[in-house]
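We were asked to recover a plausible sequence for a given structure. The inputs and outputs are reproduced exactly as logged, with field labels preserved.

PROBLEM: sequence recovery
POSITIONS: 327
GIVEN STRUCTURE:
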């Protein structure tokens, strides 16, 4: 005889099976929800990382797009190097850089082609290049090479000669020091940012971006002007550019700005005796207007008093380098 299980046992067994199936389905659903949440978190993290990569600014070799040309002139007297003392009556060029504005203000196109700098390209204008586009530290050719290969290749101008000549022509057309002198702004004194703004606005139709060296206080080092993309017209810089954080806008506009006269050591002119000339370096320190210890890297200089970096000349210097949006 076959003994069948008691009905209550069968009912209990069926209830246990149904409960087990229900718990399995609940657990499966929970796992699916956890997986979806994990995927969402990963996607957000990846998206944030990608966005951060594009928000870092600086040199962008992935896109040739730009909105305007930034024409950057240097005031040699503010750099207090031996090379700059001969050029204290006019500005010299740093560069003309294809640049961006708006949300992309912190980035710029760079090295858009592999066309190398050619000395032959500047030979027709070499006299002007040597006078108005000198390197304030070291030889000129590496400086010009950098400006062409990093920035000039992105400018969409016909040739290297056209790029350099256009840049020099704008320096002459603006004639910054003459503009300031006509407005009563002369080297050796301090002025408000508004005085500089009014002088350039009234003369060339647009204000200049003012860049200062931080180590020497609020001392003016660069004048920068915004041109259209073809470098044919000057224009007022976009507000996103004026409120940027690069070296070309580093002057504290709430304070008076020092317009240095660049006077170096030399014979005292007739009249009351002036202050003594700075001491010559002893070989183990840096002082203004003189070479410090020999060097090949910045780290070799920081151990000496007053030395902050290794200059292109191969000697330590107490003059910091300018920190532009590009170097």
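RECOVERED SEQUENCE:
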């Amino acid at each position: 005889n076959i003994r069948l299980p008691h009905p209550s046992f069968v009912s209990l067994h069926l209830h246990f099976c149904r409960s087990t199936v229900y718990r399995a389905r609940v657990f499966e659903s929970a796992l699916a929800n956890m997986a979806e949440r994990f995927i969402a978190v990963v996607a957000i993290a990846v998206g944030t990382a990608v966005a951060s990569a594009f928000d870092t600014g600086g040199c962008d070799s992935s896109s040739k797009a730009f909105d305007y040309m930034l024409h950057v002139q240097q005031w040699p007297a503010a750099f207090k190097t031996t090379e700059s003392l001969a050029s204290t009556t006019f500005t010299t060029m740093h560069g003309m850089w294809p640049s961006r504005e708006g949300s992309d203000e912190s980035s710029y196109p760079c090295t858009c082609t592999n066309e190398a700098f050619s000395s032959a390209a500047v030979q027709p204008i070499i006299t002007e290049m040597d006078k108005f586009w000198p390197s304030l530290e070291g030889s000129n050719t590496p400086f010009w090479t950098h400006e062409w290969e990093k920035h000039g290749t992105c400018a969409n101008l016909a040739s290297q000669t056209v790029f350099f000549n256009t840049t020099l022509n704008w320096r002459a057309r603006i004639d910054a020091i003459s503009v300031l002198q006509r407005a009563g702004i002369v080297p050796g004194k301090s002025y408000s940012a508004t005085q500089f703004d009014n002088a350039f606005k009234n003369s060339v139709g647009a204000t200049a971006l003012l860049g200062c060296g931080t180590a020497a206080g609020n001392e003016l080092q660069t004048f920068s002007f915004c041109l259209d993309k073809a470098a044919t017209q000057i224009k007022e810089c976009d507000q996103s550019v004026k409120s940027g954080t690069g070296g070309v806008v580093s002057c504290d506009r709430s304070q008076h700005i020092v317009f240095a006269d660049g006077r170096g050591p030399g014979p005292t002119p007739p009249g009351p005796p002036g202050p003594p000339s700075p001491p010559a370096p002893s070989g183990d320190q840096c002082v203004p207007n003189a070479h410090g210890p020999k060097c090949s890297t910045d780290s070799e200089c920081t151990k000496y008093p007053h030395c902050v970096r290794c200059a292109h000349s191969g000697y330590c210097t107490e003059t910091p380098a300018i920190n532009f949006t590009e170097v």
